[in-house]
Amino acid sequence: MNNATDVRSKGSHAAGNSSGAPAPDPRGAGMRRILDRETRSSRAGVSGIAAVLVVVLCGYGLLESAVRAIGQPPWLIDPETAAERIIALPQGMPPLLLGLIGAVTAMVGLFFFLNAVLPGRRARHLLADPRAGVVVDDEVIASALARRARVAANVIQEQVMVVVSQRQVTVNVRPTSGVPVSENAVLAAVLEELREMDPVPMPEVRVNVATAGVIGA
């Protein structure tokens, strides 16, 4: 299980100096940049893949052009021939193969497009703190909520599963056979724990109590 990440020391180090200057406001631009790095996933991997693809395609095109310029046969296909075949599409190509190539191209393009426009999020939440920025893994939040839900439902650890996402918390409870579980009590306990944590953004809570109970030990 990952541990909570406290960027308090990072913010202090970034702004502190030997003259005893006060620590920066956590809402300042420097702290926001730190929190963004901690809560958003890097696009370096996807950018690297895109760059490699572009370099390979450009390098191949340059190679074929150079081979043609010195009068040698092409390695794979002559650039002029390739351009003529692309212009003549869909002639000379089976519809199934053409559709497959189009689908693969569309999926690759959609992959890069979504990675460019959607906000990449790590499985983390910010915790409100007037003095510093605190980042906590969703697994840590799920563990704390599961503990409160387990106490409220009076069940063991294996009978509670909590899933935390950016906007929602799902609590799944399997009651002990013959022992009823109050869904409202579990919901109230989880909401109270969330209010104490005060994560940003505050997720909605959904409690699911299974109809089939677990035979008690």
Structure, explained:
The structure is a single chain. By secondary structure, this protein is of the alpha+beta class. The protein has a domain at 124-209: Alpha-Beta Plaits, CATH 3.30.70. Helices cover 50% and strands 13% of the residues. The strands form 2 sheets. The chain has a 4-stranded antiparallel sheet. The chain has a 3-stranded mixed sheet with strand order 4-5-7, covered by helices on one side. A hairpin with a 3-residue loop joins strand 4 and strand 5 (168-173). The longest helix has 26 residues, at 44-69. The two termini are 28 Å apart.
Look at the structure and give the mean pLDDT. Answer: 76
Give start-end ranges of low-pLDDT stretches.
1-26
Q: Architecture of the domain at 124-209 in CATH?
A: 2-Layer Sandwich
* CATH classification class of the domain at 124-209: Alpha Beta
Main sheet specs: 4 strands, antiparallel
Class based on secondary structure composition and strand pairing: alpha+beta
- Helices, by number, come to 7
Percentage of residues in helical conformation: 40-55%
* N-C termini distance: 28 Å
> What is the 3D form?
elongated
Strand content: 5-15%
CATH topology of the domain at 124-209: Alpha-Beta Plaits
Compute the gyration radius: what is it?
A: 28 Å
Quick overview:
This protein has helices at 8-15, 29-39, 44-69, 79-88, 95-117, 138-153, 183-197, and strands at 5-6, 124-127, 134-137, 160-164, 168-173, 199-200, 204-209. It has 217 residues and is an alpha+beta fold. The protein has a domain at 124-209: Alpha-Beta Plaits, CATH 3.30.70.
